Amino acid sequence: MPFFAAKMEILYYIDLLGTVVFAISGALTASAKKLDFFGISAVAFITALGGGTLRDVLLGSTPVGWISQVDYLLMIVLGISVALLFRKYVQKLRRTFFLFDTIGIAVFTVLGLQKALSAGVSPVICIMMGMISAVFGGVIRDVVCNEIPLIFRKEFYAVTCILGGCLYFILLKLGIVGELNVIISCASIVVIRILAVRYKWRMPSF
Amino acid sequence: MPFFAAKMEILYYIDLLGTVVFAISGALTASAKKLDFFGISAVAFITALGGGTLRDVLLGSTPVGWISQVDYLLMIVLGISVALLFRKYVQKLRRTFFLFDTIGIAVFTVLGLQKALSAGVSPVICIMMGMISAVFGGVIRDVVCNEIPLIFRKEFYAVTCILGGCLYFILLKLGIVGELNVIISCASIVVIRILAVRYKWRMPSF
Amino acid sequence: MPFFAAKMEILYYIDLLGTVVFAISGALTASAKKLDFFGISAVAFITALGGGTLRDVLLGSTPVGWISQVDYLLMIVLGISVALLFRKYVQKLRRTFFLFDTIGIAVFTVLGLQKALSAGVSPVICIMMGMISAVFGGVIRDVVCNEIPLIFRKEFYAVTCILGGCLYFILLKLGIVGELNVIISCASIVVIRILAVRYKWRMPSF
């Protein structure tokens, strides 16, 4: 089925793109913290791979994914290079960067959820694992950089992933499976995130 | 053996109660740090499940426990709700809360130790794993909230769990097994902790 | 082959010595942060075992190594005792301490790399795992002590391990295997580190 295969391939490429964008974001954060080249590289790795690594460790599907997938490591090297060589340019492209980051968390969420599903765990855990895949790289990045995690404070970010994960299972119940489900779920995360930023949605604090 | 079964069930319910109390404690800490609703929920989860998760990962008994035990997740949702809805009330009940927290670490220690024992590791490691189950949720909570862990600074807290764990193995040597051992070990942790707080016992610093 | 066996034994003893030195370094850091005796012990454990633990968890070779190797726990107890009893003396011996620490990271790198190699992963991952074994104990120590990791900021430290790991595989390609390779790779890490400190080599920052 070449059509299906082509779509699977698109998902794979978006996953790689997400990895590059997450690595760039990690490298820029580390650079702002005055880390040296090793620190910048380490934080870029942690940001891009931390979420998926935590998911794999919790599920017990070790060795963790990136150990056998050298593509992802190459994407991080690319992300670090882009961040350091074109820093000023990247910082100006905030809007493009935001869009890629959003597409990145959407794909990370759905692929993470599917990995959990194939490990045979319950839907609630799958949704948590999808969210963890997408956002805990950033959480670990902030903890390592000695900050309280940004998304714990004022971003409608993790909840977007949780809503997208819920939609995935609602669609599954409705009989919408495979690629179509993936596309709708990812698109919903992108749309909710754009609306959340556009209209400054916030989680309540107490 | 209904008597035995009834006691096992009590242990299970105390474990659930400990989870609620740890979640409340995490939610209150997060709330004091001005985190939003997602941050509060994440920190409540980390506080309640972090210790047991670390134990399971170190022992290699993955998927980690809570992935297949939805009861514990429900207890955390309950804990978060109680913390946010009855915050002022909960903060006034410091003494009750302290007692529940103490019973919680006692049960977490002994159940954690038993889980390690059933994984076939040595007594010293079992005692460490019991202590890690009980107190490392709080350690990870503090690290994520950008604080040096409280129990590393001035609490006679982890040592209480270690002493209770040692007693468990002494009793085992003396032929006191099963529920009776569990009850005595848990009770000793509760008593030592109450004495430690009452008489302001401190670990030495240098 | 007694000659070979004797050399293997030396590697084992250097590994134990490295563990003592790392525990001392952790205990001194924790002591400077005004932690109490439990905090000092916990940070000493984390510093000495954190890197190898992270490597084992990522590779999925759990239970993690120290759970079945009580020797390493004893070395940490020894390290904590030395740090607390002879603190002033240890702090004066900076040069000796630096040399032991350097030999420690060299052996941790090569043994970590070999453990990854025996798990069947690619050379790039082996080199990463060697470096993680050697330096991430210190990274976790700094994160727990609420500091941005020192080696992310201004030390030519992790890169030394990476260079030593690369040399290991170059020698392997050249047919230099076994003990001879281990000795040359370890020695190169020690020499590079001494040169790096002597001539104040720094990683670039941006």
Write the layout of secondary structure elements.
The structure is a homotrimer of 206-residue chains.
Chain A: H1 2-32, H2 37-59, H3 70-85, H4 87-92, H5 94-118, H6 123-144, H7 158-173, H8 178-198
Rough outline of chain A: globular
Radius of gyration of chain A: 17 Å
Tally of contiguous helical segments of chain A: 8
Strand content of chain A: under 5%
The N- to C-terminal Cα distance of chain A equals 52 Å
Number of structural domains of chain A: 1
Main pleated-sheet profile of chain A: none
Please give the oligomerization state of what you see.
Answer: homotrimer
Helix percentage range of chain A: over 70%
The low-pLDDT segments of chain A are: 1-5
Number of E strands of chain A:
0
Biggest interface found: B-C, 29 and 28 residues
Mean pLDDT value of chain A: 89
The helix/strand order of chain A is: HHHHHHHH
Structural class of chain A: mainly alpha
Short structural summary:
The structure is a homotrimer of 206-residue chains. The first copy, chain A, has 206 residues and is mainly α.
List the defining traits of the structure above.
206 residues, mainly alpha, disordered N terminus
Describe the structure.
- 3 copies of one chain form a homotrimer.
- With 206 residues, chain A is mostly helical.
- Chain A has 8 helices and no strands.
- In chain A, α1 (2-32) packs across α2 (37-59).
- Helices cover 78% and strands 0% of the residues of chain A.
- Chains in contact: A-B, A-C, B-C.
- Chains A and C meet through α2 and α3 of A and α2 and α6 of C.
